[in-house]
Amino acid sequence: MPSGRRRGRSRFIPVILLAVAGVMLWSIYSGFHAPSAISDAQLATAERRVIEDAFMAKGVFVRDEEVYISPVAGVVKLLVRDGAMVRAKTPVARVEAFRYGSGYESGDGSGHRPGIEGSPGDAVVLSTRSPGIVRYDIDGLESILCRGSVPGLALKELTSLSKPHGLIKNGARVSGGEAIFKVIDPTCLDILVYGSAGEIGRLSAGERVWVRFPGKGIDPVPGRVENVSAPSALISLDEWVRGADRQRFADVRIVSNISEGVSVPIEAIFTRGGKTFVYLSRRSGILMREVSIRARDSRYAIVTGVGDGQAVITNPLVIERQGM
Is residue 245 part of a domain? Predict the structure, then answer.
């Protein structure tokens, strides 16, 4: 009798094991559905891609620059080329002063004739106080924009205050007090960006970002948000931007986050019970797979839970309507 009971128990062991395996498989593939004959299902292939959390903005370069003024009226002779990199104490411009009686026209309100007519007299040489890039174009914003601070002006106001004088040319006549050139420090650079209140509001002081210059062939420049005051934010750039000494305004793309991973079209994602899913299409049928979203833009989302190359259904509502 004891041996008969043992044989009886042994018959039940395979049944129990099969039941346990069935429960496990059901828990793993609870989202699996039988092969579908739905002809309206649309497919897309999950693939690796880079997604940027970014927005377009108008940028204004804020440079560390010093403007050099002619102390007298006269004829200017330029001693270095525009855009040259010079050392401190480098002679840049020589002004042959006009004589009027016993003094020079200084532009200081001393009563000398305000015109610039006259005969060349003594020369005044303007030399750099610090090293940098020499530029002969003055736009009037040099005294308004200051690194590390936001001017509190709307972009339209800033644009209206920009009064480019054009390049000072060799042999030009200048007045006393007129700006001749500026020296720009190429070791530091800020950019003041203007966007909508919602876009600028996504940034926070101390945040690391990247600045792109679309169509300029310039690699993304990393930087740090120094100040946020909607609709503008000031970003301190880690690197000098090619051409920043020549131009003041630029179209930019501000990137606050860069993510890389397997992506699916936004329309493939749906929610159920507070969780996020996609439908995977396989030869054996359709599988509902839970995913988590790491990043997204207007077209794609980088997700976990889907492999590179897997087919996803981009119109999941069709599956839902069939009760699958």
Answer: yes
